[in-house]
């Protein structure tokens, strides 16, 4: 499993290409040759880049869904809408397909944000807004998501 760290600002050129920042490229060095899958995010107006190994793990879960159940079929269709395989070019650039470029509202300034095992690609203004919007209730969210019972037994209780 890939565990990525960091948030990086970069620029997309007029053709929709962006240079993968070298610290991120180093973290991905073991999976660069496999390529990546880029897709629309489910909950936010951004894109997600999956290393091929991570995508394959996710697809194993999706392939277990019964396609004769309408909601499963609807989910699969929506989840995979616009999915593309992408590779870095010889210069280390990633080409964002035009349809996905439009979906995320990407202009010139881009933020690449690690999200554990994937990379989110955001238009910088949208990223800043999403971070600002989440600030107010982040403490409560952190408590709800991470504040459950400890995995390590408490020897004092």
UniProtKB/TrEMBL annotation:
<keyword id="KW-0804">Transcription</keyword>
<comment type="subunit">
    <text>Forms oligomers.</text>
</comment>
<protein>
    <recommendedName>
        <fullName>Transcriptional regulator MraZ</fullName>
    </recommendedName>
</protein>
<comment type="similarity">
    <text>Belongs to the MraZ family.</text>
</comment>
<dbReference type="InterPro" id="IPR038619">
    <property type="entry name" value="MraZ_sf"/>
</dbReference>
<dbReference type="InterPro" id="IPR035642">
    <property type="entry name" value="MraZ_N"/>
</dbReference>
<dbReference type="GO" id="GO:2000143">
    <property type="term" value="P:negative regulation of DNA-templated transcription initiation"/>
</dbReference>
<keyword id="KW-0963">Cytoplasm</keyword>
<keyword id="KW-0677">Repeat</keyword>
<dbReference type="InterPro" id="IPR007159">
    <property type="entry name" value="SpoVT-AbrB_dom"/>
</dbReference>
<dbReference type="InterPro" id="IPR003444">
    <property type="entry name" value="MraZ"/>
</dbReference>
<dbReference type="InterPro" id="IPR035644">
    <property type="entry name" value="MraZ_C"/>
</dbReference>
<dbReference type="GO" id="GO:0003700">
    <property type="term" value="F:DNA-binding transcription factor activity"/>
</dbReference>
<dbReference type="InterPro" id="IPR020603">
    <property type="entry name" value="MraZ_dom"/>
</dbReference>
<dbReference type="Pfam" id="PF02381">
    <property type="entry name" value="MraZ"/>
</dbReference>
<dbReference type="GO" id="GO:0009295">
    <property type="term" value="C:nucleoid"/>
</dbReference>
<keyword id="KW-0805">Transcription regulation</keyword>
<dbReference type="GO" id="GO:0005737">
    <property type="term" value="C:cytoplasm"/>
</dbReference>
<dbReference type="GO" id="GO:0000976">
    <property type="term" value="F:transcription cis-regulatory region binding"/>
</dbReference>
<feature type="domain" description="SpoVT-AbrB">
    <location>
        <begin position="7"/>
        <end position="54"/>
    </location>
</feature>
<dbReference type="InterPro" id="IPR037914">
    <property type="entry name" value="SpoVT-AbrB_sf"/>
</dbReference>
<feature type="domain" description="SpoVT-AbrB">
    <location>
        <begin position="83"/>
        <end position="126"/>
    </location>
</feature>
<keyword id="KW-0238">DNA-binding</keyword>
């Amino acid at each position: 499993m890939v565990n990525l760290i960091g948030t990086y600002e970069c620029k997309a050129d007029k053709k929709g290409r962006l240079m993968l920042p070298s610290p991120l490229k180093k973290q991905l060095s073991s999976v660069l040759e496999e390529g990546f899958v880029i897709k629309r995010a489910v909950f936010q107006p951004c894109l997600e880049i999956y290393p091929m190994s991570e995508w394959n793990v996710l697809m194993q879960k999706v392939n277990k869904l019964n396609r004769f159940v309408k909601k499963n079929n609807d989910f699969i269709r929506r989840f995979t809408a616009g999915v593309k395989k992408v590779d870095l070019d010889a210069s280390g650039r990633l080409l964002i397909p035009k349809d996905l470029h439009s979906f995320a509202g990407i202009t010139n300034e881009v933020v690449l944000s690690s999200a554990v095992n994937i990379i989110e690609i955001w238009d910088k203004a949208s990223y800043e807004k999403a971070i600002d919007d989440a600030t107010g209730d982040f403490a409560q969210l952190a408590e709800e998501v991470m504040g459950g019972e400890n995995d390590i037994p408490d020897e004092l209780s």
